[in-house]
Amino acid sequence: MPDKRYSSIEMIKRLVSFDTTSTASNLALINFVADYLAALGIDSHLIHDESGEKANLYATIGPRDVPGIVLSGHTDVVPVDGQAWDTDPFEVVEKENRLYGRGTSDMKSFIAIALAMAPDFATRDLKTPVHFALSFDEEVGCLGAPLMIRKMDQLGAKPRAVIVGEPTQMSVVNAHKGVYSFITTVKGLERHSSETHRGVNAIAYGAELVNFLTTVGEEMRDQQSDPESGFDPPFTTVHVGTMQGGTAQNIVPLNCIFSWEYRLMPGEDASDIRNRFQAHVERVVLPKMHAVDETTAIETEVRAVVPGLVPEDGSAAEALVLALARKNSTEVVAYGTEAGQFQEAGNQAVICGPGSIAQAHKPNEYIDLGEVRACEIFMRRLLDEVCAA
Ligand SMILES: [Zn+2]
Fold it and tell me: Among 4, 166, 177, 382, which residue is least crowded by beta carbons within 10 Å?
């Protein structure tokens, strides 16, 4: 057994104390969890990224030959840079029935409450296994989870349900949009600004592409609305987030770079907008640029791909989590999660976790202690469930 048993709150404090901002290594946290589980006799698989600086952790408690319940969460948090915090973001402060700290809502509390229960899972006679699945780099495009999902598949895990503990205030969420983001670079040709006809203006062509994306977004809004879906807004959105380019007022700009994304209604064709964009590049914009200079170019790089979570009404996973959370109905959320990745790999996944997304990513992020208690009760019911024959 570990030297000490952690309460949920003690474990939340411990996990928040690791600065696991996505730009940094998460290994200190992962090693702490692996050691903690090892002291309970539970082996962990660590699945590292290419740099070796980050890892997912996957561990199983209970029988190996029965479909289990996956408790899934990301260990990374968003940066605190430039945010006005009243207290140290990596040291939990308890006041007015709240715990303040980076990651308290998004989403170390869910992981901590699950881990604080590990001694119970480890000592009781589980009929259904419980898996801990902790990822890295969720906040920068859900980059870590796919490696872990592949490993789980290699290990022969066939989960009955995946519970992704993103903050839903313990509501049961069965759908979210997909997120597809890109960076497009337009390479033009520099000239003195008096000779526009001999140059290729990268900003002007970049703007043309941005206009195209705006038009596609308007079309999505006008033609593809699905008010019954529960989403706000109930259609696929297209968005350009940043744009840079040019050197000086009197130079035809050489470069223009812009980042863009679409958030796709679950179940829609994921490559449609990307393909339409590329067709517009090749048929309309590039020929105009190449008419002046053949070396000009437009390149688009994929930044992140997070598949949508398609609702599976009445699925076994959904029924289980509704029962554990004592809820009668499911909800949808606007943000992307790893649940879509688990589902794409053939699992039934739902989202249910403590805390509110309204507090996520902000200075003075907090979780209400009531949320912590609600999640503890949820985990106790899960313990009873996995012990039942
Ligand atoms: Zn999150």
Answer: 4
